[in-house]
Amino acid sequence: MILQVQGVCKRFGGLQALTDVTFDMEEGQILGLIGPNGAGKTTLFNAVNGVYPPEVGKVVFRGQDITRWAPYKVAHLGMARTFQVVRPLNELTVRDNVIVGACYGREGHSRTAGAKVADAVLERVGLAERANQLAASLNVAQKKRLEMARALAAKPYLLLLDEVLAGLNPTEVARMLDTIRQIRAEGVTIFMIEHLMHAVMNLSDWVVVLDYGKVIAQGLPQQVSTDPHVVEAYLGDPRLAAELLAGG
Amino acid sequence: MKVGNVGAVRPAASAAVPSIPARFWQRVSFWVTLAVVALLGAVAIVSQRDTLREAMFTLLMFASLASSLNILLGYTGYVSFGHIVFFGLGGYSGFYFISKQGWSIYPSLIVGGLVASVIALLIGLSILRLRGAYFALATIGILEAARAFVANFGPFGGSTGLSINFSVYRQYGGPAQALWTSFYIMWVITFIVVIVSFYIKSSRFGLGLLSIREDEDAALVMGVNAPRWKTLAYVVSAFFPGVIGTLYFFKNGNVEPADAFRLQMSIETIVMVMLGGQGTVLGPILGAATYDRLRSYLLTSDLFKNLHLAVAGLALLLIVLFVPAGVVGWLRGRFAQLRRVLE
Lengths: 248, 343
Ligand SMILES: Nc1ncnc2c1ncn2[C@@H]1O[C@H](COP(=O)(O)OP(=O)(O)O)[C@@H](O)[C@H]1O
Ligand SMILES: [Mg+2]
Hints:
The structure holds two protein chains of two kinds. By secondary structure, chain A is α/β, with parallel strands linked by helices.
C-alpha cells in the first residue's frame, strides 16, 4: 500500500466536507476519484497532502503516518500534486517554475541539476519551446501542462492530479491522457480526480466515489459505473449519469 | 515524447534560435551593477572633495540598504515598513562596542550585523506568520517599540544616546581621515551587498524565495519550506543594515534614538527599491541613486524641505499606480530581450 486513508473527517465551519473517508491505494496503480461538484474531492487531496489537516483520521504514506504534516514535508517524502485551479508562479519563467519542483521535491536538486531535470520534463510535456516565457503568458492548456511538469520534476512516488483534463479540447485531452499513461508506465502511482467519465473509466485500476463528503462506492471501474448508489448520486447531473450508464 | 503531435507547435524542424545561455546574460547584468557601484565610488575619490564624498557616502548607504531590503521585499514579497529597525538596533550595538568597549570599527561592524540578524531571527519567527498588510503593520509596530525600548535602555544611554570621544579617531589617522575610511568601507559594503544579492537570486534558496513571493501556498505544496526560507531571507536582509548602522554612527560620532529609528528613512528605502525595480539586482541601486539625487535637490529648496516625507509618499503612490514593477522591471516587461540582460 502506498497510501492509506483511514476515517478522515474534515469540517469547514458548519460544513462537514469529509466524513469518515477510508480507502487504500496500491503502488503502481491509477486510482480515480469521482463525485459530483462540491463532493469534497479537492478537499480530500488537501487533507492528504497537508494543506487542510483533517480533524479526525489518519493518512499513511509509504508506511509513514503523515497526518497533519506540513505540505512541504509531504512533498519531500515523494507526493506531488497539481491544482484544479492552476497556480503558475506568474512572474517566473516556465523553466524556473519547473526548477522549483525539481529543487524542492523529493530529490531536492541543486539549482543547476534542477535545471537539467526541468528541461527534460518540459520536453516530455511539450513545453520546451516555452521554457523562457513567463508562466503568466501561457494559455490554459499550457498552464495545465505546467502544473503537470512541476509535479513531475519533483520525481514523486505518488502524483495527485486534480482535474487536469478540465478545460482542454479533445486533442489536448488525448495528449494529456498519453502523458498520464506514460507516467504510470514509469512506475509512478497516480491518484486522479476527473470529471470526464470515459477518461476515468478507461485509465483507472480502481475507482472511489465521493458524495457529500462520504465514500459511497469503490471498486473496479465497471462495478462502480453500475452501482445504484453512484447512479443515484449523479442523477442531479443527467449528462454525467448518461455517460456513467453508457459505461464511459 | 509526444512533442510533435499537435500540428501547430512545430514549424520546420526545430528552428533553433541561436541562444546564448541565460546564465551569461545574468553575469553581464551583474557586472553592469558592480560597474555602477564602482563608478559611484570612483567619482568621490577622483574629485577628492569632501562634500562629494559625503554625498556619495549617503548614496551608497541607501543603495545598500535598498539592496538588502530587496532580498525581503523584492525576492520574497514581504513588505517591511520598519526595516530601518535593524539599522538602528545593529548600529546601536556596534556603536556600543566602539564607544564603551573601545573596539575597533571592523569587528564592531560584524557585531552590529550579527545582532541585527539575531533580532531578525527572533522577530521573524513570530511576525512572518502574518501576510500582506498585517506583516507590514507589525514591522512598523516593532520599529516604534524598539525606539521606545532603546530610549529607556541604560547601557545605550537612554534618550541622550551614545557618543565617542574624538580621540578614538586617532587610530584611523584623525577625524578627517576617518571620514575617508568610512567612505571606503561603505563602498566595499555596497559591493558585498550586490554580490550577495546576486548570488542569492541565482541560488536554490533564491528560487525558493521567488516562489514564496509568487504564491506562498503553492510553494509550500511544491516542497518549499516557506517558514524557514522567509525567516532566513529576513535574517540576511537585516544583517547589512546592522553593519551600515554601525558605520554610519561611527562616522557621525554619536547615536540617539531619534536618529536611529526613522520611519521616514524606512519608507524612502522602500521607494528606492520600488522605483528601480523590486526583485532585480540592479533596480535598487539605480532607484537609490535616482531618489537620492532627487531628494538632495529637493532638500536645497525651502519649499520642499519640510515636505520630504510627503514627497516620498507621493512617489510611492505614483510608482504603485503607474509602474508597479519599477524602472528596471518596466524595461524588462516592455522589451522582452532585456529580460535576460537586466537581472
Ligand atoms: N477552504 C474552504 N473553506 C470553506 N469551505 C470550503 C473550503 N474548501 C472547500 N470548501 C467546501 O467544501 C465542499 C467540498 O469542496 P471541494 O472539495 O472543492 O469539492 P470538489 O472538489 O469535489 O468539487 C464544498 O462545499 C466547498 O464549498
Ligand atoms: Mg475540486
